[in-house]
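Could you join me in thinking about how sequence relates to backbone shape in a protein? Label the sequence line and the structure token line clearly, so we can match residues to local backbone shapes. Once you have written the record down, we can walk along the chain together.
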Amino acid sequence: QVQLVESGGGLVQAGGSLRLSCAASGRTSSMAWFRMAPGKEREFVASISRGGGLTIYADSVKGRFTISNDNAKNTVSLQMNSLTPEDTAVYYCAAGFVIGATADASYQYWGQGTQVTVSS
């Protein structure tokens, strides 16, 4: 019902920045970013409520990443600063109807993922 398309991934040196974007075909109550690194389970990164009033960050990215949205365009972005090789992963955009959820099972719609590689 809702299709999500991520963009903005790529290769960046440690200490650099990237900005990921996700375009949604429909409106939901909550959108989030997850990531999955090689040999690791999918982990929560950040989420934002539709109005932007509630944002949640994983401890591993707090202070470095910023999630934002544009309701007029049905998009969500993730500004990633001070990147380290540990941030290397496939990043997925997700959308659902449970505000503040950090579990992937709480999100119904998923994008195809975009690769972020941070070199040392």
About this structure: Residues 11 and 41 are 22 Å apart (CA to CA).
